[in-house]
């Protein structure tokens, strides 16, 4: 009888958790009532129907933006407009896997880069025009200051090539969008675009230089098109840009230089100079890995890929460049898959290298604090009492001393036998099995790790964002401890701060 009551009590507790999750999520997804587009209404209700399944998953992140259910991938547009940060993302409303047919543009907004409001789906495939799915792209303002979506029309009919289309906002809140009558704006054989354009060209990214507006694309050999009018409804072929590769190219000026971000394996960057008159990108600046999520090379098995991909950027009212990426690699069949990275402020350091730091607004999520200062680690570990959880922000500063290695154990089991380990040996930071090359200069003997742990997501910012790594993790549900350690010698923790992280949802 006692066993039966225990089972019943456990079942009730589980149901209460699910009900609480539904109470949190369900009202946040907009109603499709009154939606003028039946296809968008159908997609909205398909997401709503999947919420109960997604809400049951205890590993689903709560401090990272995501739709309440179903599949999310690329951040396909980002814009700061009239006091709101807007994020658009690839969404399969009808399942928790990627879909060759039906992929749409989800949409959300935030006033503070922390708490997000779901908005109606912005685009679904125009099936009456033979559209299979809406591929990634960008969002920008036209000459009248009106937001426009640029995306790739993927045709259903075999033999028809992809085209670059646009939609324009119908209201100041950007809740509804209308495809332009002039579509396609860019297509093979139109406006000087080569007729033999690669069938996979996609992911338009609009950028500006010298008062002119351009766009480049993936899988196009660096093709660049130029807008012929302020309305951005007429375009022509303008040349080719060196260095464009991978998917979701982002090309923009930053601190007097030009930065090219590429969703390659791993995601990469190139800093240089841009001569727009000659359509020449001089790649004379630093280049490297944007995020080490994938490790040093493309995974052999596509299904095992993990981490950070499909980026987009926006510039806000403070002049900051905000970098956003897609976090991938979650376990399947949970009613949801995919989330957005934490918003990162992107700058160039004194050597011209990109530096990524978590947006300071994220401090609003900090809850209970536990910490120690100036703690000696003489070849041993120190478990931080009171710092337990599966949603944590951790800031650790190590003085390396004579130790052969130092690091952190997160989601540590009570017996210390299992943990998510971050270990630095003076050459490489091993982040839960992913190597991050990191050499400190001769005078620097300090390692700083700024870590965000959110259920199944781990984001690590190393030495002030000099390097970053994103991982998907699945530790034991009861493994919640935090430990700092040193191996083979002495080291010190100058600072170890741990905060419980709150949810971004109201």
Please write out the topology.
Blueprint (H helix, E strand, L loop, with lengths): L1 H24 L12 H18 L14 E12 L2 E9 L11 E7 L6 E7 L7 E11 L5 E9 L7 E7 L7 E3 L6 E2 L14 E8 L2 E7 L4 E5 L7 E6 L6 E8 L2 E7 L4 E8 L4 E3 L4 E3 L17 E9 L5 E8 L7 E2 L1 E2 L3 E5 L5 E5 L7 E13 L2 E3 L7 E9 L5 E8 L7 E5 L3 E4 L2 E4 L8 E9 L2 E6 L4 E6 L8 E7 L2 E12 L5
Parallel strand pairs: 1-21
Antiparallel strand pairs: 1-2, 2-3, 3-4, 5-6, 6-7, 7-8, 7-9, 10-11, 11-12, 12-13, 14-15, 15-16, 16-17, 16-18, 19-20, 20-22, 20-23, 23-24, 25-36, 26-35, 27-32, 27-36, 28-29, 28-35, 29-30, 30-31, 32-33, 33-34
CATH architecture descriptor of the largest domain: 5 Propeller
Percent in helix: under 10%
What is the mean pLDDT?
93
Number of domains: 2
How would you write the strand order of the largest sheet?
A: 25-36-27-32-33-34
The separation of the N and C termini measures 40 Å
| Overall spatial form | globular
Total strand count, please?
Answer: 36
Largest sheet: 6 strands, antiparallel
Which topology of the largest domain does CATH recognise?
Answer: Tachylectin-2, Chain A
Structural class: mainly beta
Report Rg: 24 Å
Contiguous low-pLDDT stretches (5 residues minimum) are: 1-27
CATH superfamily of the largest domain: Glycosyl hydrolase domain, family 43
Q: How much β-strand is present in the residues? A: over 45%
Q: Kindly provide the name of the CATH class of the largest domain.
A: Mainly Beta
Q: What is the number of helices?
A: 2
